[in-house]
What does this fold into?
Amino acid sequence: MKLIRFQAQDRPARGILSGNEVTELGGDFFTPFRTLKTSFLFSQIKLLPPCTPSKIVAIGLNYRDHAKELSLPVPDTPIVFLKPPTAVIGPGEAVLYPATSSQVDYEAELGVVIKDRVRNISPASARDHILGYTCANDVTARDLQKKDGQWTRAKSFDTFCPVGPWIETDLNPDDLLIESYLNGELRQSSRTSQFIFTVDYLVSFISGIMTLEPGDLIITGTPAGIGPMKPGDEIEVRIEGIGSLNNTVKR
It folds into this structure.
């Protein structure tokens, strides 16, 4: 099932996308679904970011091929950092290239959307608390990351977390093809089977640090092939079983 947030008739709404038809939902994604009589053609709506997280919990260096690419040892525990919710943008929106950076990179990532309020859960129960999965791009000002020696500024600019196009609820995240395309050219291609830490382990590990709230977003690391974007570029994140997230880059 594809859950979407969308704008139609100048108002935001939530719905279920089936084929070319959107059925509007009453309430939110975190209570029993209540379908309304309102429906739209997909061509009549504008997609919004599929979630509005209170926080974005990101994982660094979680693909074996990416660790090899950077000649870094495989970490013993997940490398956790945060991106602010103000970084979120939706499909088709522009990543804004900050004037303070000279290298802004794409990072294709699998996003995990949390379903309910959880704390200290086990890996075995993690999927009971996952609403679904989406595409994400952990945009990074690489030069500022290297200059600062920590990641907060480099990862936190407004527009630095494109998410979408929807939340896919019926998906096994363990072995999915994940790719990125810059101006139509393949730049990243790997599988989530290359994860150092699985989705189940990550959700459990993070929940032992901080309470996760409904709609919170975990982005699970990027594979090998990261690289720079420039104003005027188009960047696509494509994940098997989910779809494609497309954004442009603007100064």
User: Anything to note?
Assistant: DSSP finds four helices and 20 strands in the chain. Residues 56-250 form a domain with the Fumarylacetoacetate hydrolase; domain 2 fold (CATH 3.90.850.10). The CA atoms of residues 23 and 230 lie 38 Å apart. The chain has a mean pLDDT of 97.
